[in-house]
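Page 42, continued from yesterday. The earlier attempt failed because a stray header line got pasted into the input along with the sequence. Redoing it now with the clean sequence only.
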Amino acid sequence: MYEWIKALHVIAVISWMAGMLYLPRLFVYHCEAEPGSKQSETFKVMERRLLKAIINPAMIVTWLAGLWMVWEAGWYKSGWFHAKFVLVLLMSAVHGFFTSRVRDFALDRNTRSQKFYRIINEVPTVLMIAIVILVIVKPF
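This time it went through. C-alpha cells are written below.
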C-alpha cells in the first residue's frame, strides 16, 4: 500500500506545483488587463478554476498522502523530515497568499505590480527544490 500512496503523493505534488508555478504567471498578465475588461474577466475565470479545480485538491491530497506516509514509515523521527515539514508549511502559506490574491483580482482590488508577481513566482520554485533535495538526499 505504501508504494501506491507514494505514487499518489508524487502525482499530487506535481499537480500542486504546476498550479503554484502557473498562477502567479497569470497574475503577471492580469496586471496588464484593464479592470472590468473582457480580458480581465477571462483571467478571473482562469485563476479561479486553476485554484479550485487543480491547486486546492492537489494540496489536500499531497498533505493527506504525505502525512499517511510519514506515520506509516516513521519519518516523523528524522531530522530531514522536520526541515521538510517546515518548508511544506511555508509552501502552504504561499498557497494561502495566492488564494488571497485570486480574491483581490476577482474584486478588482489588486494593488501589486507585475514585478512583484514575477518575483513571488520564484518562491514556490526555491521551496520545491529544497524539499526535493531533503526527500531524496536526506542529509540529516
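Notes: The two ends are 26 Å apart (CA to CA).
Reminder to self: strip header lines before submitting.
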